[in-house]
Each structure stands twice: as C-alpha cells, then as structure tokens.
Specification:
The protein has about 400 residues and is of the alpha+beta class. Helices cover about 30% and strands about 40% of the residues.
Length: about 400
C-alpha cells in the first residue's frame, strides 16, 4: 500500500519541476533585452570650424604677351617652363603683305593714294600763290619805305604795307606747312598700299620682347600663323610667386574674414600647407556645378605662409583644397555630432545612466562636422549614445556593443 504512494509523489515532482523550467525559459525568452549601442562621451577641448572648397593655384602677376600688329607670326621657339629675361625676344612677326588685301581694300588704298596726290598738288599750288603774294608785299613795302624816307609817303601808308607783308608771310608759312602735312599723308597712303619690302636691318620683322623676367607659363600660339593685332602669344610669370584662388559658395564666403588662418590640403604633399586669407573679392559669379546646379560663388584669395621650398612642386593652375577658419574656441564643451538628433524642434541626446538611456535636450552652437559645441544640457565626462536608433526610448535598458 505504501509503494504506489511513493510513485505518485515522484511523478508529481518531476512534472512540476519540468513545468517550472519551461516557465523560467519562457520568462527569459520574452523578457526585454538591453539595446546594444555605441557609446561616446562629452568632453572639453578646442573646437575649430572651417569652410572648405576646391581652389587652384595661380601666379600672382601673369603677363600676357600679344601681337602688337597684324601679320604672319613666325614659329615660337620658347617652350612652356623655359626661363626668359626681360627684353629677350620671344616671338617675331612679319607685317601683313598688301598682296593679301582683298579687291575692295586694295581699291580703297589706291583711291587714298590718288586723293593724297591731288591734295598735294593743290597744296603746292596754294604755296606757290602765297609765295608770289609774299614777294609782291615785300617789294611794295620796300618801295613805300623809300618814299617815306623822302617824305613823300605817310606813316599810315608805311604801316599798311608792313601789315600786308606780315600777313603775306604768315600765309606763305601756312601754305608750306600744309604741303608738308599732305606729303606725310601721301607717304602714309603709299605705305599702306605698298609697304617697303625691307623695313629695316631685320628684314621688316617686328620683334616681340619679354616684358619681365620669369618663366613661360604657356604658349598660346606656337606654330607659324597669321594673327590679328592683340592676339595673345604666350603668358609669362614667376611660379615662385603663387597664391591660391578658392571658389567658395557665397553663403560660406560671408563667414570668411581677411587675415583668417587657412590650410591648403589635397595638393599632393604629405602635410597640409599654412595660409592666410588676403582678400575676399566683393563680386560673386554664377557657376554651374557638375550636377547642373546653379551656384553663386565668390573668389577667396589665400597667400602661402610656409617657405616656398615646401611647395615648390606646385605650379600655375594646380588643383588644391582650401580650408579657412571661421570660428575657434579653446575650451568648448564638445559632443560627437553622431549623438545628436532632432526632438521637438530642438536637439537632444541619450545619456547613458546606470545602464539606461535618458533623453536629454541640449542647446548646441558651432560644429566642425565631427564634434559640436554644447552650450547647455551636458557636462564634460557624461556618456552619450552614438547613432541612436528608432527603437531606443527614454529609460530603455542599454548595453555597450562588444562590452
């Protein structure tokens, strides 16, 4: 009678224990798990805000050498990069050949010559007439002076002939000057029609000389060709006198001040170069981006502060990236930008307090894209959740990822 009672108790205990284990497993399975998060911390330190954009180097003073007259430009012997001295011949031009004139231009030149010849004949005739009148006035004046000395002519008659003599002499001088002027016009007309084949000891070649000492930056007209007056031939400058021109968006340029510190990056060297803003140009211009977006940009001119030996490999028109300091604070309370998110129209973070996430509103200031200034709401040393997800709520249990 006792054995069945013992078996019944064992069976009851077994199934009771099994049920208890299952219950515990269910509780553990459905219990909320801590959210795995990455943690950072607010701290105190220096915070520098910069604006960045692409730029290019350029020689501060570029001299464009152009053709002073039209004609045939002889092949340019200088190459880009060569050094030249001030006054050195860098190009030569043969003046334009009148044989190359079209029929209309030649007819106009020939008519100009005939007109000048006719004007010269008329001026010579006028000079001859003025000479005859001056001779007659001189003879008449001598006769009246003789009569005046003998008492026959009056003083008034003498004064009149003297006036007529001076008038006639002035007319002769005017006629002679007019002849000289017309002769010069005739010579110019003939020169335009038939310039001398040999204009000087250099065979009529016009030499173009370098205005300054430096290096040839680029040759714009290398091969022999016919050029018009003012055609650019080459550019000369000193590559050791470089500056940086950065094209900033106008919204960034308004934050830049003359004298601000700058850094020249991505120029090909191992370290960034130091610079200083010399000028923010007052005129903006429209530029179309690679995506077809219209952008208003402003040129910011930056001078190098490092020794030229550090950036001697740079040349005219090289691409660089310019970063200009617009704000700096040595002792700023900082928090990683990755911890910030929008909440009720402001900024907030999740502080990590005793394994729980605590929603905290903060007031922020400047940021450099990595760290943001905290004006109020956080103290240095407080831990914050980085990259908070949508599943994170105020008071939720958290656990550091990998901890």
């Amino acid at each position: 009678m006792k054995l069945p009672k013992i078996a019944l108790n064992f069976r009851t205990l077994f199934w009771g224990a099994a049920a208890l284990v299952v219950l515990v497993l269910l509780v553990l399975a459905f219990r909320p798990q801590p959210v795995l998060v990455d943690l950072g911390a607010a701290d105190e330190g220096a915070l520098t805000v910069m604006v960045r954009d692409e730029g290019r180097t350029r020689v501060r003073e570029v001299y464009a050498v152009s053709a002073p007259i039209g004609g045939r430009l002889l092949r340019v012997g200088n190459r880009a990069g060569e050094r030249v001295q001030a006054g050195e011949v860098v190009a030569s031009i043969l003046p334009g050949d009148p044989a190359l004139l079209d029929a209309r231009s030649r007819s106009e030149a020939e008519a100009a010559v005939r007109s000048a010849e006719a004007a010269l004949a008329f001026a010579q005739a006028e000079a001859e007439r003025a000479g005859v009148q001056a001779g007659f006035a001189r003879t008449e004046a001598q006769r009246i002076e003789t009569l005046f000395q003998t008492g026959v002519a009056s003083q008034g008659a003498l004064d009149r002939v003297r006036l007529e003599l001076r008038t006639a002499q002035a007319g002769l001088n005017t006629a002679r000057a007019n002849v000289a002027r017309v002769e010069a016009e005739l010579a110019a007309a003939r020169a335009r029609l038939n310039p001398p084949a040999n204009g000087g000891g250099n065979g009529g070649v016009v030499e173009i000389r370098a205005p300054v000492s430096g290096r040839v930056l680029r040759v714009l007209q290398e091969s022999e060709s016919v050029v018009a007056p003012g055609t650019p031939v080459m550019e000369i400058g000193d590559p050791a006198d470089l500056e940086v021109v950065a094209e900033f968006l106008s919204t960034d340029a308004v934050q830049v001040r003359e004298g601000a510190e700058a850094r020249i990056e991505a120029w090909g060297g191992a370290d960034a170069l130091r610079g200083r803003v010399r000028l923010v140009e007052p005129y903006g211009f429209l530029k179309i981006s690679a995506l077809g977006v219209e952008e208003q940009r402003v040129n910011v001119i930056i001078d190098f502060l490092d020794e030229p030996a550090l950036w001697s490999a740079l040349g005219h028109g090289y691409r660089v990236e310019a970063a200009v300091v617009v704000w700096h604070e040595d002792n700023a309370t900082r928090v990683p930008v990755a911890a910030l998110f929008r909440q009720d129209g402001g900024w907030a973070v999740f502080r990590a307090v005793n394994g729980r996430a605590r929603l905290t509103m903060v007031e922020t200031g400047r940021d450099d894209g990595r760290m943001a200034q905290v004006v109020s709401g956080l103290q240095p040393g407080e831990a914050v959740v980085l990259y908070p997800g949508r599943e994170l709520r105020d008071g939720a249990a958290i656990r550091r990822r990998g901890g």
